[in-house]
Amino acid sequence: MADNMNPDKLIEKWFKEEDFLDLPPDISPPKIEYNKKLIAWFDVLGMSKKILDSGKSDSGAEDILTDIGKLSNCVENSCNLLIRQNKLEYIQLNDGFIIESDLDCIDELCGILCEIQWKVLVEIKLPIRGTLTAGQIIKSPEPKVIIGPAFINAYIMEDENAIFPRILFSDDIYQYINKKKITFPFITEDADHLKYLDFLRYELNLESNRKNFDNKLKVLGVKKLLKNAYAENINKNISIAQKYGWIIKKLSALNISVYH
Length: 260
Description:
Blueprint: H1 7-14, E1 35-44, H2 47-53, H3 60-84, E2 88-93, E3 96-101, H4 106-123, E4 128-140, E5 145-147, H5 149-162, E6 167-169, H6 171-178, E7 187-189, E8 195-197, H7 199-206, H8 210-219, H9 222-233, H10 238-253
Parallel strand pairs: 4-6
Antiparallel strand pairs: 1-3, 1-4, 2-3, 4-5, 7-8
């Protein structure tokens, strides 16, 4: 082939010598590896229906955006301390959240999840359901993505096992409990023998006594919400009624009735 047809010779003509970059021969992209982390996945029960129904009213879209904004603020404010310490990150997916944190933050994350459950119930008037697990994940900063077996396991478990407004534990977290690596005291075993984060006892503990917590539930409208949601759905949608009935039953176990 003649020199003027040689691709290398043509490239040399197109670029001046100073335009060529001398790259070190050992440059290679960073190795991507799985890391073991705590992963929580939860979403808001009833939010999807609320979004679907939002088109039926003039203020529907605005109301949904307001609720999503409140939801984001609840999560952001609760996670803020560990975020500032670079120990936690989260991603919002519509009305669902993936929270990833360091393994040594198990007690802090349990408290954060209880706090979020309470805030969302009070501010958005809807309950939360989810799971907490530990396992392998990969994450990328931009766009922010968290993927891996741990998230898949958390998602499947929430969909198939959580059922009620509770945050369950995977087998990996049970190992933490059995080895006493969790000191968080507000973990309760349910009737189906699955352990969950007891956000109601967590909130009760923040009050000086049960009477104050009872009054707080009344003033914040939680009692009215639970009572009305259960009554409205008991003959219309038993699945929804059971979810609110579950919270009513848990409060009853704390000697708190929503009916007075």
